[in-house]
Records
---
Amino acid sequence: MAKARRHFTVPGEFPMYRGGSLLQPTIAYETWGELDDARSNAVLIFTGMSPSAHAASSVLDPTPGWWEEIVGPGLPIDTRRYFVICVNSLGSCFGSTGPASIDPRTGQIYRLTFPVLSLEDVARGGYELLRHLGIERLRALVGPSMGGMTSLAFELMFPGLSEGLLLMSTGSRALPFSIALRSLQREMIRRDPNFNDGNYTRGSMPLTGMRLARKLGMITYRSAEEWRVRFGRERVSASLEPMNGDSFGIVFEVESYLEHHANKFTGQFDPNCYLYLSRASDLFDVADHGGTVMAGLKRIEARRSMIIGVKTDFLFPIDQQRELAEGLSGRGREVEFVELSSLQGHDSFLVDMDSYRPLIAKFFE
Amino acid sequence: MAKARRHFTVPGEFPMYRGGSLLQPTIAYETWGELDDARSNAVLIFTGMSPSAHAASSVLDPTPGWWEEIVGPGLPIDTRRYFVICVNSLGSCFGSTGPASIDPRTGQIYRLTFPVLSLEDVARGGYELLRHLGIERLRALVGPSMGGMTSLAFELMFPGLSEGLLLMSTGSRALPFSIALRSLQREMIRRDPNFNDGNYTRGSMPLTGMRLARKLGMITYRSAEEWRVRFGRERVSASLEPMNGDSFGIVFEVESYLEHHANKFTGQFDPNCYLYLSRASDLFDVADHGGTVMAGLKRIEARRSMIIGVKTDFLFPIDQQRELAEGLSGRGREVEFVELSSLQGHDSFLVDMDSYRPLIAKFFE
């Protein structure tokens, strides 16, 4: 896996958007395809909160990526035509510097001494990488979910650098409902006795808090409609007798599904990194870059945009997609707004490939 | 407070719907108004999951009840005309027998030895109380939220006993989305180290788990729209500096609101009772009483029904209200279905009194 992942160390000091700095942070990334001679065919992808830079498989790493059906030769983001870069967000734990990394100034793991993380910092990490790669123009910037907000930050901080902008399941800012959910997820982790103010050890991780947070995540990433169709009231067990002495164990299929996904996730993601990225999502606000959301969006110079939203998305409701499309349009800009009826809620861009494949292909034609 | 609350002890053994029995359980209740000579003016209210029987103030207990603007002299459920009874659900902890009560067979607190609780048991508790009070006919049965499902159970078990049926923010069964949310709330409590398999002590209650569960409750009881209007992205503090050493403390108004409500709730409600009532809500299914939901609903004999639902309700979506109205109609029955646009989601029946007052008054005219 490590063979496909590359690392770039930003030289010197990296100033953080909300204060403080990092010394020589690393940005992990993967690339697919070839940069053309004019250095004009690059596409940059910012990810959602939890994925790594491994968007798709390659010769160096044949394991399937998180967007395996979208990025590749002959696929919607065609790596025969484009040089595709996916970065692991600064603050994450899949190769990029984050709270789980060692602070070179102290020789200790950052943990909660990591400065406040903003999506503007994640965006700047991507920008520094482009400079390092000698790329001065992007054919397109692509961002689903948190990656969409990071893309907006990028556009606001480095205007005119990208010709196209493809956003999906994202928004100009977090709404209080999403803030409440993420705040509760953070609290679940922080209240786990093993969290120990961020000083957990490998032998005693706040796994319970992480599991609970992941389950709440799954509940908000999908939709009530999907589960009604998929699980209904199907039972794992007809009996309600306590199993293994547990009176309130799993009875319904939907409970078993959540359990399965929580077990898969936990252990992969560093809890402190989760807290920082989660809070960064709450803090982001296009209005910080222009006084109001609309004024901020008007400053974005991408010539062509596509905004894809899903009606069943709880975290970034469809109204927020419409707002983005409205704010980005005008001034001779080409903006396409697509409203999908996918059942899979916020996660649709990872699951409902039949809907997304043709849309993304059209954007890149 | 205890002056208004009355207690009735069911004589002998009380068989539980899903097996086991209780010995001489107590049903706590309050009443308002006078039973007329024909014993024909009684109205029975089953509550949502967490309230006590104290729906409204009275001379004996002047503290405001949870439906203070609905139940009283000259109010929509007019206590000058009706003899109004509100029961504390069996399994709860406000006077009725539940997991926090002493099992007379052992002299010990039931805790998790309490048999599986079903809303059918809660309904039977209400029925036994009516028999005790010498009431053979109800003018109306009223149930919001979990109380609505309890009312449906009552109608299915004791058909023809009530002339009218007023349901709000409820459904014929729990959907997997609601089950997932409640399952996660239960897990938060059960994973609190102080839970200790239900054997917590007064000095070390699973308060963290209860606080988290209550916060998730608040998130699902209200609506994203309400919070957008009420809180927006207002901050409690402009600074993101760690406060009292807490790097991820409260920053946004919505976080402060949840904190306030969690603190108010915790300590009032017994954690084991919470688990039992929560699971009982998941288990209820009208289809258990007729093969399918529609067949079950057709068995209900109430002559006049009103179903009130709210479009912003997450827990019992508006489709479920429509399903109830459809299932209850026909056969010369009078059914009114009201779809409200209240902003306050599932909790609207407790908050949006301007919408509910005239509707409930109309039903009781």
Note: Chain B touches chain A through 53 residues (CB under 8 Å).
---
Amino acid sequence: MKTVFDTLGGDKGCANVVRGALRSLDKHDDLSVVFVGDENEINGVLKEEGRLGDSRIEVVHAPEVVTGEDRPTDAIRLKKDSSMIRSISILRTDESVNALVSTGATGTLTAAATLRIGRIRGIRRPALCPILPTMNGGIVGICDSGANVDVTPEMLLQFACLGSVYLETAFGIERPRVALLNVGTESEKGDGLRKAAYPLLKEEKTINFVGNMESRDLLSGKYDLIVCDGFSGNVLAKSTEGAAMLLLKRIKSDIMKKTTYKVGAMFLKKMFMEEKEFMNYQNYGGSVLLGCEKIIVKGHGSSNEKAVEVCSEQAYRMYKNGLLDKVSERAESCLASEEEK
Amino acid sequence: MKTVFDTLGGDKGCANVVRGALRSLDKHDDLSVVFVGDENEINGVLKEEGRLGDSRIEVVHAPEVVTGEDRPTDAIRLKKDSSMIRSISILRTDESVNALVSTGATGTLTAAATLRIGRIRGIRRPALCPILPTMNGGIVGICDSGANVDVTPEMLLQFACLGSVYLETAFGIERPRVALLNVGTESEKGDGLRKAAYPLLKEEKTINFVGNMESRDLLSGKYDLIVCDGFSGNVLAKSTEGAAMLLLKRIKSDIMKKTTYKVGAMFLKKMFMEEKEFMNYQNYGGSVLLGCEKIIVKGHGSSNEKAVEVCSEQAYRMYKNGLLDKVSERAESCLASEEEK
């Protein structure tokens, strides 16, 4: 198993990515890594960590950075020496490389991967699937969360199949409960897209479709996978994250206003820290771009060392559990009807 | 000013609606009300409150209830004696009635109002606009939040105009900062709908368009009005509410786990209660159905007395400040180009 790490583009810099990857490397004898980015910077970190010359570590110099401001098409065309585009090239051309972890710009990563890395046969469009924690201690996936903003009912069916295989393979969830994001739970709810997708999902035997879900129930623990177009999936994931983080921030600032509050907060410090960690969905893994012929994990831009480690572990687990083969197999059954059209 | 109250359909029952309305009635000498629902039940509450025979109060018997399970088209056709459909009829036919407050099923209310109450000239489709609190103590409106799930770029422009007039008239916000809900802040982001709506919003001189907004910034206080299709608006409003409420619930259950936490929470009790009230967006008013020829306020299903009072006050304020005339005026300029098509 060999994973390439795009070391630039995250908010916390190269050292953070390298150290997170090393943590993961130390766990598995059969893992090796390629660090792509500013060679001097990477080697500096490796020296500090006493890992220069490690036979399981390669370094590739590509110091340019793709940012969120770059238009994906421009970045792909003009920033060939960027860590992200070079990482994609390595993933594409080096057959010994199985996976990519990046904390860089989602738009360019998704576009470059879709264009450059082949899709698994039968898959129309790769989809992004982030993982969020649920209130009862479980997780829930959202597919698609932004790779495809304009979608068809058939694509929603594919997202359901892709996400189901992913949750089974990477998290051992058997027969994930799949729900369609909608404006109400009744079967006839929604816009034209949802109304057309509902019967397709209901008829598909290889998935465990449980009906429509209202967005307020996302974290309820009643569902394992939420199927949606990339636009509303993006709104769902980011507003949930945003609301929780802002509420914690408000509580923090409230506490500073009164001495009695400060005293109370001392007793609750551990609880608040645990809640903050709980809501920090980096801890649960990156967003996986499903449907490509290689494993691609997009970590949050603000990923810390631990979050990078989690992304790497996630990639390792998916590879070892044969995610790509399983998606191919499923594509034969679940998605076959699709291809016939 | 006369307001009709649909007393059934909310989670907390008729008495709650009647008492909330009475609170508002007591504030304004020029306000009168019509209570529609179960006559006996309404009169029972009025008797308890010592208000039987009050010349400013009318009671209309229509005891059937429209629920969230009813299909809107069926409810409109078959439940003519329901409090909601009868309230709409009164609003339509009685020229002395200016406004309707209901805490019942949103789908049926929206559909019945759209069908039965005329639209203001130039308005294609009425839109729902709920109000949420922002982190810095302000408010933000979301238009549309679910009345229209399939929309055009021109409709998004109308939502921007309608919402702007509403925030100016009901809340005194001058030149509301309007943002388009999108998957990123850059101008070229989004699906076909957003890409087509962006230039329309940018060119429209009567609104203060400030660009795209990512959903995580909804509560940041940087925007006064978020423009979106009803599908993603519904996702945005409900996931924000859901995440905040679930987080508070988790904190509450965490606190019960340890004695030290319980002690700390005693010091913070007031703060937690304030935060809960802060996040409870009922306190900021109901969702207004904008674009109809009369004022329609949809309160949250779980509205308590205070929330009903707030909805009634909101309707009163909009009427007194001439919302409907202002929408008509604006329709002449902002929406004129629309009608020409």
Note: The longest helix of chain B spans residues 230-255.
